[in-house]
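Reply to dn_fold:

You asked what the input looked like. This is it:
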Amino acid sequence: MRAKEPEIIRTIIPPYKRLAPYYDQLMDYIDYDIWVEDILNFIREDGSVKTLLDVSCGTGSMAIRFARAGMQVSGVDISPEMIGEARKKVHQAGLADGIELTVGDMRDIQYSKPFDLMINLHDGLNYLPDAGVVNTFFQHAHDLLRPEGWLIADVVTPLLCENHFKGYREIFSDESGGYERVTDYDSGTRIASTIFTFEISPTEIQVEEHLQRAYDLEEVKAMCKASPFKKYQILDDEDFRPADGSSERFYVILRKA
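and this is what came back:
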């Protein structure tokens, strides 16, 4: 008689709970220095920018670079595990006294003083599921900025998802087990779903599901117009021309009047 197969326990866990230690390796193709250079270029006319809030700050890669550029930096992320990784990196960089890191929701986090500049990169807006929630964030960001303050975000478009997210699969292994990643994109709902599966033991796996909503140019324009920001630009992230239907990712630059 064949031995009975052991039952596999499958547990759904919050996004980044187990992925956080792998995040920097997962994102090692990104040139954060160029991102910082882009942001500084957008605000170069405003010499009064000294304080920055990095929303959805992840493991702190951008926060560290802006602190080294001379800014007073705060970072917030909804994932305690990502903030934990960020604190390790900030300590290793010798910037523990110069960067404030907080676990919180970007839609309602509170601070005692207004900021000159807010950034929300790493597809942060795409984790918000619809235009109504994005507008809630825009309103709150407006409240957190000083007059003439800046909000700069990036947005992934349906074109990028069609080109890069359909049927993507990756397996990564290391001494702690690694993960399997499967990403797919539904053109109808415009939802990109990424499933990370972690084998904890031969009989236990843990699963994270990351859902992102792609927004097209007309949707982003409508959200900007509905926001309390009176000045905005939507640019292609590759060449900074006005975004159009061929743009895979936008920079959205809003300024408080």
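The chain has two domains: 9-16+160-212, 23-157+215-255.
Hope that clears it up.
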